[in-house]
Structure formats: C-alpha cells, structure tokens
C-alpha cells in the first residue's frame, strides 16, 4: 500500500467550504431519525444528496444504498455507514434535538426516536468522503464505494443487503472500512485496534412454565416467579465460575416478566437475556450454560413443561484484520499525529463485519472521539448522546478519506 499525504490534503481541501452545508444536513438527519428497516425518508434524502453531486448509486433492498465512484485503475475500497436510529427519547439539550416520534411498523405504536448512537455522524462522514473523492479525481485512482446500511441496531441490515444482492451492485472490494463515534475517546481523536474490537453478542427470550394457583395455596401450583428468580441468580455464576479469568464475557438479564396480581401464581414467566464475548468458544459455552441452567432449574422446580428458547439480535465478533489495521494506523499516524490513538476493545456489538466476512474481504473498524469533554461524555444509547458538531463532522470525513487513501493514492 502507499500513502501520499499531499494528495490527501488536496482531496480534503474543500472541508472549510462545505462545512456549513454539511452541518445543516447533519442537523436535518439528527432531527428526523428513523427506526431500523424504516429508514425510508433517510434513504430518500441520501439519494437526493448523491444525485445533486452527480455521484452514481444503486438501491439495495428498501432502504440500503451503494454509491460507487470509479476513477481509473487501482484498488477497490469500500467504506460503510449505518443510517438507522433508536427507539429512545432524546435529552441532549441540543437546539436541533429530535422531538418527533415514529410509528413502529411491528407494534403499530408511536415511539420516541433519536440518533443516540451517532449513526447520523457516520452517514454524514461517508457522504462527505464521497463528495471529497468525487470532487478531486486527479488526486487518486481506483474505486471508492460507500455502503449506506440500514438496521444495524437490530442486526438485520447487513444481512438484508446481502440477501438483496449488494455483492452484485458493487465491484468486489479489496478492503472494507468502518468507524463509530464514541464518548470513550478524546474529542477529535481516531482510535485503532488490531484483532477483536467489538464483542459478539446474542439475546435470548426464555419462557418457563409453572402451574397457576391461588397465592394463598402455593402447594397446589408450581411458582414460575420463584423459578425465574432462581434462574437469574444461577446465571450470574456463568461468568464468575465457568469463564476463564483472562476472557471477557457478560451475561445480563434485562427483563423478567410474570404475573399481574399479588394473590395469583401465574402459569409462566419470561426472561430476556443478553450476552457478550470476544471469541466464539466463550460465546458457545455461554449459550450451552444458559440452556443447561434453565433446564436444570425447571426440573428442580417441577415445571410441567419444557422451557422455550428464542434467539435474536445475533451479532458476530468484529475482529480487525491485523495487516489492514496496520495500514490504516500508519496513515492515521502520519495525518493526525497525536490524535491517532489506541482503541481499547469495546463491549458493544455490530453487524459491520457481516458483509466483508461473507465476501471474504479483510476489514478494519475504528473509533472516532465525539466529545471535547471526554470525562463527562455520555455513552452510546444514552438519551443525552449527541456528539459535538465540530471537530467531529470534519474528523469523520477526514478519517474515511485518510484510511481509503492508503490504498487509493500513490
């Protein structure tokens, strides 16, 4: 690979001129968030922006887009941005914060919606990078592909794009790049890491069965509330007693629902369990342990029916290719200097790696610091999560261009 910093600076020379327009467009996306697989207006606006700049694109599925700039011979570099938002009410205090709810297509209910994970920053960064490469074809050669992906928050989007033929609408990438805005990095910094950077994850809904009875006659029933409670406590031993100390893992029971009245023993209980791990072996062990513990507790409680397990929100490990990461890190070090930093493994999960894994493409995923006041920065998915406008928006564009330029400049 090669990296020409003079060419990179030329590609990025319009940042000052486009800053105001990019900030206004960012505010539009921030004020109009859309839920996973419902990003219709977001996708339409992205398409309109690409058309206005003369950048070729194709739709993939209902709300995915792939923009392609072919500029002579050379490598094919793809960069991905997610575009969906969260069912969460914003409380950032920003003058442009989201206030409009959205109707969830599955439940039919109106839910507050916000970009509390920063995906609006990601899509604006990729749009800015596409514009920069489009405006300066004399400074690079090859092909730059922007993948604008829906539904990262529900782990559906990358798979949906694959199922709808994303591999057929873009040239085969030589490398796949991605970034995520974070509060855990210094504002304006870019952080890289070899190997496991984001955990793999799965959630499971467990339904256990009891036997309904009057609360004053518990001996006539089987109490699923007590059963579920023992399961919750026993699950806490998976990480503390079954996972090797050097490995990192999390098992969380986020919800336990049973019954509706104090003097009625219900017939069933439901638990929602979320897990995280940094390798497949640990994840497989956690899954086996959850089912083993649930079945054993059900037997001990005289449950009249086998428990039910429904798995969802399944995310793969994001495991950065060492050589690709080293190439990007070298480019970041040269361009950003002290703002190029190490990134600790993040105990969150992404479907970013689904497409490059399926296509057999090396990838790397880095972090982007979004808050000048790092000590008080809210975490992703916090109602107050709304990154500083600058330097975040500029840095997001720069990071994608600099990383891609390690392959596209000489």
TrEMBL record:
Annotated GO MF terms: hippurate hydrolase activity; metal ion binding; N-acetyldiaminopimelate deacetylase activity
Pfam families membership: M20_dimer, Peptidase_M20
InterPro entries: Amidohydrolase (IPR017439), Bact_exopeptidase_dim_dom (IPR036264), Peptidase_M20 (IPR002933), Peptidase_M20_dimer (IPR011650)
Cofactor(s) demanded: Mn(2+)
Region annotation Disordered: where it falls in the sequence: 90-113
EC number: 3.5.1.32
Keyword Zinc-finger annotated: no
GO terms (BP aspect): diaminopimelate biosynthetic process
Domain of life: Bacteria
Entry annotated with the keyword Repeat: no
Keywords of this entry: Hydrolase, Manganese, Metal-binding
Domain Peptidase M20 dimerisation: 202-299
Cofactor note: The Mn(2+) ion enhances activity.
List of residues binding Mn(2+): 117, 119, 153, 180, 381
Protein's name in the database: Amidohydrolase
């Amino acid at each position: 690979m090669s990296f020409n910093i003079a060419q990179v600076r030329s590609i990025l020379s319009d940042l000052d001129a486009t800053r105001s327009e990019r900030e206004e467009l960012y505010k539009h996306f921030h004020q109009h968030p859309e839920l996973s697989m419902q990003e219709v207006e977001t996708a339409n606006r992205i398409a309109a922006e690409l058309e206005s700049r003369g950048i070729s694109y194709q739709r993939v599925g209902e709300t995915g887009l792939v923009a392609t700039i072919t500029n002579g011979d050379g490598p094919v570099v793809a960069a991905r941005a997610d575009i969906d938002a969260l069912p969460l009410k914003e409380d950032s205090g920003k003058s442009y914060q989201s206030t409009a709810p959205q109707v969830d297509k599955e439940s039919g209910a109106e839910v507050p919606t916000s970009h509390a994970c920063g995906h609006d920053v990601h899509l604006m960064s990729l749009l800015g990078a596409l514009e920069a490469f489009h405006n300066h074809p004399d400074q690079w050669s090859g092909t730059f592909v922007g993948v604008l992906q829906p539904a990262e928050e529900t782990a559906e989007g990358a798979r949906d794009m694959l199922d709808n033929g994303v591999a057929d609408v873009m040239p085969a990438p030589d490398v796949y790049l991605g970034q995520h805005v974070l509060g855990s990095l210094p504002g304006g910094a870019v952080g890289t890491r070899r190997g496991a950077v984001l955990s793999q994850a799965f959630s499971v809904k467990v339904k256990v069965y009891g036997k309904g009875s009057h609360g004053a006659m518990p001996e006539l029933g089987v109490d699923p509330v007590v059963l579920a409670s023992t399961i919750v406590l026993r699950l806490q031993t998976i990480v503390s007693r079954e996972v090797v100390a050097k490995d990192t893992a999390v098992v969380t029971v986020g919800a336990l629902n049973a019954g509706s009245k104090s003097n009625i023993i219900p017939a069933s209980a439901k638990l929602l369990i979320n897990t995280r791990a940094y390798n497949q072996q640990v994840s497989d062990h956690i899954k086996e342990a959850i089912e083993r513990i649930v079945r054993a507790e059900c037997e001990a409680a005289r449950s009249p029916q086998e428990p039910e397990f429904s798995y969802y929100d399944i995310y793969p490990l994001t495991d950065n290719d060492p050589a690709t990461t080293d190439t990007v890190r070298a480019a970041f070090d040269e361009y950003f200097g002290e703002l190029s930093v190490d990134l600790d493994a993040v105990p969150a999960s992404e479907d970013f790696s689904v497409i490059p894994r399926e296509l057999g493409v090396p990838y790397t995923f880095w972090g982007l610091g979004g808050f000048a006041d790092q000590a008080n920065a809210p975490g992703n998915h916090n109602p107050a999560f709304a990154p500083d406008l600058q330097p975040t928006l500029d840095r997001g564009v720069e990071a994608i261009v600099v990383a891609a330029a390690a392959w596209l400049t000489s």
